[in-house]
Amino acid sequence: MTYPPRPGPDGTYPPPPDPPIEAYQPPVPPHPEQYGYGYPPAPIAPGYGQGNPGSPYSYPAYSHPAYPYAPAPPTEGLAIASLAVSCAGIAGLCLWSVGGLLGIVGAILGHVARRRIRATGAGGAGLALAGIIVGWSVTGLAALGVAAFVFFLTQSGSSTY
């Protein structure tokens, strides 16, 4: 649409567009004076509580059930410890491959946590699996670092003049 609108073939301008209307307009009661101010109270859906009728701050139409979902199972503490120790092993790789020991501890904690999760149905299976993967990866990197250190140490001592 262009502004201002162009005149039609007979020289007249088209009427302006209709103003926008609201999506919902509440119905007008047949006799508003019988309700005093406002509209009649809205009906409450069956099954919902009535709130506190003596309180001026109660909203009975908006109450909801107390527990709509079942609570999540608790997370296994060993699974969290497994991932934390395995991640600490990553930082320990810089300290003469001490991280390899932390990686082994983290992986073993992860295996124990997975066994306990299967037995009890607790949460944290993903944390335990991540602890196992990171722990054994850190242990492998530490073993490669120790092997490379020993290799270079033995090669430098066997040089001939």
What does this structure look like?
The protein has about 160 residues and is mostly helical. The chain has a domain of about 80 residues. It contains 3 helices and no strands.
Short description:
This protein is mostly helical and 161 residues long.
Topology:
Layout: H1 77-92, H2 99-120, H3 125-157
Helix pairs in contact: 1-2, 1-3, 2-3
What is the averaged pLDDT score?
79
Percent of residues in helices: 40-55%
Rg measurement, Å? 37 Å
Global structural class: mainly alpha
Q: How many β-strand runs?
A: 0
Main sheet record: none
Strand content is under 5%
Distance between the termini: 93 Å
The helix/strand order is HHH
Stretches where pLDDT is under 50 for at least 5 consecutive residues are none
Q: Based on Cα principal axes, name the global outline.
A: elongated
How many helices?
Answer: 3
Question: What attributes does this structure have?
Answer:
161 residues; mainly alpha; 44% helix
